Amino acid sequence: MTIHPTALVDPQARIDKNVTIGPYSVIGGNAIIGADCEIGSHVFLDWTKLSRGCAIGSHTAIGSDPQIYDWKQVESWVEIGAGTIINELTAIHRSMYEGKATIIGADCYIMTQSHIGHDCKLGEGVTVTTLAGLSGHIEIGDKAVIGGAAGIHQFVRIGEMAMVGGMSRVVQDVAPYFLVAGVPAQARGLNAYAFKKYGTPPQERKNLKKAYRLLVRSKLSLSGAMKKIADDIPIEGAVARLVDFMREAKGGVTL
């Protein structure tokens, strides 16, 4: 373990082996830091459970109180999965609910000056690009990408392997595998880059394209498009996950 002499580390903090803590960082008594983590300079870390092999950039604050008027102090957390990288000047707020957590999955990449609000839940392999802002209670599926300076409204869900374009304003759910962009955001296509990167099988890609055309370009109502998908496309694999997501949408979907 390497702790810079200017760092302030509460003796109640639980710190595993091979952890590095940089100059002027403040580690609170409710911090749990897994093995092989690297914490830069001027970092604030408390009410956080940091898994193995994470890297935290300088001037980042994790585990601060949720940004809510009249919030009453409760024991709540930020939980960060193994191998996640969080770059400089990022803020991640803990849950507003007692015993609950804001969750960042394993192997995520959170770029500089991002904000992740209270009670967000990010899956594995999510990328949040510079200056993106996530309001409270947002859910983001595995391997999704949030573009730079995008703003996501509270309670919105972003499906797995979806992509939100830079500087977009997202006020409704984004379906899995969709690419959306604009102010307000609109569907622009499917995330072909993710299909190639993660090896989506060709038949699943073909079926997703059919489902996309019915949802976005057919001029059918949403219920009509969903019925047509059920009638014409095998509901399995990626299409099954898309259909399940659409059925669970409560505040509308970005189309």
Arithmetic mean of pLDDT: 97
Give the CATH H-level superfamily of the largest domain. Answer: Hexapeptide repeat proteins
Q: How do the strands of the widest beta sheet line up side by side? A: 1-4-7-10-13-16-19-22-25-27-28
CATH architecture of the largest domain: 3 Solenoid
Number of strands: 28
Label the overall shape: elongated
User: What profile does the largest beta sheet have?
Assistant: 11 strands, mixed
Overall CATH class of the largest domain: Mainly Beta
Describe the structure.
It is a single chain. By secondary structure, the chain is α/β, with parallel strands linked by helices. It has two domains: 189 residues, UDP N-Acetylglucosamine Acyltransferase, domain 1 (3 Solenoid), CATH 2.160.10; 53 residues, Up-down Bundle (Udp N-acetylglucosamine O-acyltransferase, Domain 2). 18% of the residues lie in helices and 27% in strands. It is built from four helices and 28 strands. An eleven-stranded mixed beta sheet has the order 1-4-7-10-13-16-19-22-25-27-28, covered by helices on one side. Strands 2-5-8-11-14-17-20-23-26 form a nine-stranded parallel beta sheet, with no helix packed on it. The radius of gyration is 20 Å and the shape is elongated. The mean pLDDT is 97.
Key features of this structure:
255 residues; alpha/beta; UDP N-Acetylglucosamine Acyltransferase, domain 1; Udp N-acetylglucosamine O-acyltransferase, Domain 2; 2 domains; 18% helix
Q: What secondary-structure arrangement, pairings included, does this model have?
A:
Elements: E1 2-3, E2 8-9, E3 14-15, E4 20-21, E5 26-27, E6 32-33, E7 38-39, E8 44-45, E9 48-50, E10 55-56, E11 61-64, E12 77-80, E13 85-86, E14 91-93, E15 101-104, E16 109-110, E17 115-116, E18 121-122, E19 127-128, E20 133-134, E21 139-140, E22 145-146, E23 151-152, E24 157-158, E25 163-164, E26 169-170, E27 178-181, E28 186-190, H1 192-198, H2 202-217, H3 222-232, H4 237-248
Parallel strand pairs: 1-4, 2-5, 3-6, 4-7, 5-8, 6-9, 7-10, 8-11, 9-12, 10-13, 11-14, 12-15, 13-16, 14-17, 15-18, 16-19, 17-20, 18-21, 19-22, 20-23, 21-24, 22-25, 23-26, 25-27
Antiparallel strand pairs: 27-28
Helix pairs in contact: 2-3, 2-4
